[in-house]
Amino acid sequence: MRAWRVAELGEPATVMRLVDVAEPEPAAGQVVVRVLAAAANFPDVLLCRGLYQVKPQLPFTPGVELCGEVVAVGGSVTRFSPGDRVIGAGIFPHGGFGELALMEEATTFPAPSALDDAEAASLYIGYQTGWFALHRRAGIRPGETLLVHAAAGGVGSAAVQLGKAAGARVIGVVGGPAKAEVARALGADVVVDRHADGRAGDWVAVVKEHTGGRGADVIYDPVGGETYQRSTKCVAFEGRILIIGFAGGEIQSAALNHALIKNYSILGLHWGLYNQVDPEAVAHCHAELTDLADRGLVKPLVSERLPLEQAADGVQRLGDGATVGRVVITP
């Protein structure tokens, strides 16, 4: 079968190679799927660079999130059979950027019938991250103001839709007019283009203006660095800043005295830990997301559907910050 392999670390466009590899065989508790769609994620970029917290042995096939059709099951697998359409995590060395992929039964779930393959492939990581962040960590409530950074990106777009579904007023921050249009289409009530001139691009000022000076109750930050530092200037009394990731490349230091003085919380989220510590919560989250998809309240925004041959280019552009919504590989 054909699959993209990483045999050395570096930029995705340089180190990803489309090659012929042996088909995976499922061990106990595993399933092999024919890949219907695999969504590109920032962790795929970091895996290629050797900067992700998980460091698989070389060579490996990236692709941490996918939708597939089960073609074989290993021993002790009871929840799935050949022919089932599923979503979940690809496992190394046989991730989702190939014709076949390997998945663990424990991190595999039925694909929502309301979503097509590319949309379903995009529901697992970004939307589970957003759901756990907003509901489990921040306890978001109807009527609160949610500020979402990188609101047109894969993770941010999920947070916008989930915030609206939770009854929050959503302010999205983006970089550029095209991304601003995407954030509006996702349902953001207020969109700030940080590249705009003057006050129009000053999202701290815009947040204060639209909240009567109070600030945002919940801030969703997958960017880090200066974005986090400025977020502390517009967080509300008893507000919550969610630390989702560091796509901006800089891991900030938190001034804890400032959190004390302004009475806000800094909440970290490592969603992957829930699969180890509380897998039932992950299953419950999937059921909640499926219900939201069935009711039309969430629908992943797939901006690009690329053939397998263009996977490396798509992952590289994601890493360069040149994409909006979700980039999905469709073998």
Structure description:
Helix 9 (about 255-260) links the parallel strand 12 and strand 13. The chain has 2 domains: about 1-120 and about 300-330, Medium-chain alcohol dehydrogenases, catalytic domain (Quinone Oxidoreductase, Chain A, domain 1, Alpha-Beta Complex); about 125-270, Rossmann fold, CATH 3.40.50.720. The protein is globular. Strands 3, 4, 5, 6, 7, 14 and 15 form a 7-stranded mixed beta sheet that branches. A 6-stranded parallel beta sheet has the order 10-9-8-11-12-13, sandwiched between helices. The protein is built from 12 helices and 15 strands. It has about 325 residues and is an alpha/beta fold. Helix 2 (about 40-50) crosses helix 12, helix 4 packs across helix 5 and helix 4 (about 125-135) crosses helix 11 (about 280-295).
Summarize the structure.
The chain has 331 residues and is an alpha/beta fold.
List keywords for this structure.
331 residues, alpha/beta, Quinone Oxidoreductase, Chain A, domain 1, Rossmann fold, 2 domains, 7-stranded mixed beta sheet, 6-stranded parallel beta sheet, 12 helices, 25% strand, globular
Helix content: 25-40%
Q: State the CATH architecture of the largest domain.
A: Alpha-Beta Complex
The geometry reads as globular
**pLDDT average, as an integer?**
95
- Largest sheet at a glance? 7 strands, mixed
Q: What sequence of helices (H) and strands (E) makes up the elements?
A: EHEEHEEEEHHEHEHEHEHEHEHHEHE
Tell me the Rg in angstroms.
20 Å
Uncertain segments of ≥5 residues (pLDDT<50)? none
What number of structural domains do the residues give?
2
- The total count of strands amounts to 15
Structural class: alpha/beta
Terminal Cα separation, in Å?
Answer: 11 Å
Percent of residues in β-strands: 25-35%
CATH superfamily of the largest domain: Medium-chain alcohol dehydrogenases, catalytic domain
What's the total helix number?
12
Under CATH, the topology of the largest domain is which? Answer: Quinone Oxidoreductase, Chain A, domain 1
- Can you tell me the CATH class of the largest domain? Alpha Beta
